[in-house]
Sequence to fold (336 residues):
Amino acid sequence: MATHTMRAVRLHEHGGPEVLRYDEVPLPEPGPGEVLVRVHAAGVNPPDRYLRGGLTSMPGKADSTVGLPAIPGTDVSGVVEAVAADVDEFVVGDEVFGLLRFPGFDGSAYAEYVAAPASDLARKPTGIDHVHAAGAPMAGLTAWQFLIEPGHDHPSPFQDTPHRPTALDAGTTVLINGAAGGVGHFALQLAKWKGARVIAVASGRHASFLSELGADRFIDYTRSRPEDLVRDVDLVLDAVGGPQSRRFLRTLKRGGAQFPVLPGDFDAQETAELGVTVSSAQVRSNGAQLAELGRLLDAGTVRVAIDSTFALADARAAHERADRGHIQGKIVLTVA
Fold:
């Protein structure tokens, strides 16, 4: 390769979107077990913004793993440019996508090239482009590991026991709060794939979008409180979380479960009295699971909704969009 440098977005300090700088940096070299990927698109995810804002250690890890300047980003889609000697899963020219080195802040996906662990990658579905593929890894794997199969036995840092999904079938009703967002819209489609009945909660502007994805019932939270309208569901997946998450407990039947994607405020006595469980997971990179999700993407069973795209050099604008919230699907950076 003739060039020894590339362009990347880096943080030299923590703060708002204005701290994202478009720099010239050394080209990475793949280490053992890695491939060099020429990035075509990179997904924007909440941890990218947490890192930008000053969070430098993952929940459950005591020490910071981040040194500045740092390249944010974990979701990538691109083409294999070089392969380490001990990698035989991929060859130069393969189109791949993946969630890189998560949980952690060293994915370095906001760049023209990235050195990626081969085990974190899967072949990009041929039926979708790089933009849509880059929107899938973190959000899609989060929904998969909450609803279908964790793929690991590591407990969430917010609980002592490993997460166990609820069996989903035609007799199951699932309520998804934040159904229009990245994780939410994947969770809706995966639940429908398993045959479940899905109640989608979001603001009214997302009603037709969620109906198209297969929602059986839609609740506009700006007009009604879901906890006043719904009873006897088997599972609540709350992709919003926060201190208000516990209000959904009373929508569950006895024996039901609530899965908060983000930390919530729950009372053990209340959950025991209601006869329900609360369980969370921490998404982890998993190329094999991503390959399974990729087959659903290729078949059109699951699709990636794109809220907006921005050029890599315009990462600041992408983060400004993310900070405004009310996202429909995913925000993606494109690399020329």
